[in-house]
């Protein structure tokens, strides 16, 4: 939300920066990265036409203008809290609330489904709406169309709080009677077979594994494009095609379908699924409770079965470089 040229979310960041007099400490307080907090400081400097915080020796000090802003900013935020944001204590057993989440069918299957069964027992009156991934998920967060976004960490925004929930890697899935699945999957065999893959939204955004393979100038023979991850197993059953699936989902489907899984014959970095919410909702007790419960279920599933296989050479894959390239190819707004 903006008032004139000022993004009102920045007032929360300004209050933390004025109080902590440190970008790193303010970042911790806001549950943001240092780069996101530095970015917020840059925008505040541009708006006020003042440096606000300057380095002196090993510390940062406030400018005269920043000193003048301490009490007014604190007073404005306190007034907002007392007149708008203050809510009664959150009681899960009696809470009557709708929480809107955007998530892929994959993360819904491997995490949200189990989490919601737990939440039903603890918060029987809460309701949940799960929306499919759109072409502009960050815009959906910022416009208030959704409360929570669950997606890979490459696709979240540095401007809002987030939490990594779990990691997953990839395997090859194929029909049990496919001769190509009789032994270990080789690189040559992998690229010679027909593939089934998923792409999403009006922009037909590719899944991460599809994007990563093409990034390395490798060409898979994609014979079927589906709109969801969950449709992939059924589209390779009784065929000689294969699909590259997240391991957590693959382990579920091979138990119930005539399918087998093999290791991917080259390095694909594991994905990390992250949960994000709007900075303006950082003190929403109901949302924070849901975030905590989702994180607890994710942690429990990891304790039961650590299914991320370490990848040789993965350390050589610069996640930061991948993130930059991914964001360039997949604008979120």
Keywords:
333 residues; alpha/beta; Arc Repressor Mutant, subunit A; D-Maltodextrin-Binding Protein, domain 2; 3 domains; 5-stranded mixed β-sheet; 12 helices
Could you walk me through the main structural features you see in this protein, from its secondary elements to its overall organization?
Helix 1 packs across helix 2 and helix 5 crosses helix 11. The radius of gyration is 23 Å and the shape is elongated. It has three domains: about 80 residues, Winged helix-like DNA-binding domain superfamily/Winged helix DNA-binding domain (Arc Repressor Mutant, subunit A, Orthogonal Bundle); about 130 residues, Periplasmic binding protein-like II (D-Maltodextrin-Binding Protein, domain 2, 3-Layer(aba) Sandwich), CATH 3.40.190.10; about 90 residues, Periplasmic binding protein-like II (D-Maltodextrin-Binding Protein, domain 2, 3-Layer(aba) Sandwich), CATH 3.40.190.10. About 5% of the residues have low confidence. Helices cover about 40% and strands about 20% of the residues. The protein is built from twelve helices and 15 strands. It has about 325 residues and is of the alpha/beta class. The strands form four sheets. Strands 9, 10, 11, 12, 13 and 14 form a six-stranded mixed β-sheet that branches.
